[in-house]
């Protein structure tokens, strides 16, 4: 199936998320109770709900999206190119509205690709769209569809080869497939701090774009194709 995928119909995406509130103490009391219930079995015995709150950004009920980066492949003079654009800001609803508008201009058959997208990016987007009262774009809708009708690619799932217990990070997958990656300025565990304490959103956007580029290159490896040289990658501002 992957061999027949038309890259010109693929959008590679990555999202960056943070807790809706900078600190646990800022959560309204009823949400503090719900956070404690939600994370009860995830926390270690010595961890308090406050201690565990730094992970709130990965749960769609308690987090929000601050950046969506998208990569589009295109071919010119028989050469492969990648164009990367990001939608970001402090107003999640505006980010999601702009993202939905972008998808309205794309074919309904557009295929998404992300690393661990089926477990994180795709459902997180759908949940936050619903919470913000925005209609879920047709490309993200999976209800009622058969597995082979869902146009979602996941590079982590591709690497599993049916081993559902196997987790491989994007950085590790890129390394073993000889995909060059720029040295990361930050990692996922630092996004909350960079956003709330350093207030440096552009730094997070750059990190998000790097992941899109790396995921795109990994996808090319899965298709048995050459990776795209840096000079053929454009960051659209």
From TrEMBL:
One of its GO terms (molecular function) is exonuclease activity. The keyword Nuclease applies. InterPro entries: 3'-5'_exonuclease_PolB-like, RNaseH-like_sf, RNaseH_sf. Coiled coil: none annotated. SUPFAM superfamilies: Ribonuclease H-like. Keywords: Exonuclease, Hydrolase, Nuclease. It comes from Pedobacter rhodius. This is 3'-5' exonuclease. The keyword RNA-binding does not apply. It comes from the Bacteria. Residues 62-225 form the Predicted 3'-5' exonuclease PolB-like domain.
């Amino acid at each position: 199936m992957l061999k027949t995928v038309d890259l010109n119909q693929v959008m590679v995406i990555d999202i960056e998320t943070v807790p809706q509130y900078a600190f646990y103490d800022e959560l309204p009391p009823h949400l503090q109770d719900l956070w404690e219930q939600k994370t009860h079995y995830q926390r270690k015995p010595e961890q308090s709900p406050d201690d565990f709150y730094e992970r709130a950004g990965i749960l769609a009920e308690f987090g929000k999206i601050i950046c969506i980066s998208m990569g589009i492949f295109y071919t010119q003079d028989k050469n492969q190119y990648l164009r990367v654009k990001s939608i970001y800001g402090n107003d999640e609803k505006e980010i999601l509205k702009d993202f939905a508008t972008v998808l309205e201009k794309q074919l309904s058959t557009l295929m998404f690709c992300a690393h661990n997208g089926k477990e994180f990016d795709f459902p997180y987007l759908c949940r936050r769209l619903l919470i913000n009262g925005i209609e879920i774009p047709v490309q993200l809708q999976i209800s009622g569809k058969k597995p082979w009708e869902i146009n979602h690619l996941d590079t982590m799932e591709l690497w599993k080869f049916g081993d559902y217990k196997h987790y491989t990070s994007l950085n590790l997958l890129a390394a073993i497939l000889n995909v060059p990656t720029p040295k990361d300025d930050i990692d996922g565990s630092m996004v909350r701090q960079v956003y709330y304490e350093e207030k440096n959103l552009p730094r997070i956007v750059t990190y998000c774009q790097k992941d899109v580029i790396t995921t795109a290159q990994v996808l090319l490896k899965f298709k048995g194709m050459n990776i795209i040289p840096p000079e053929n990658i454009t960051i659209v501002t």
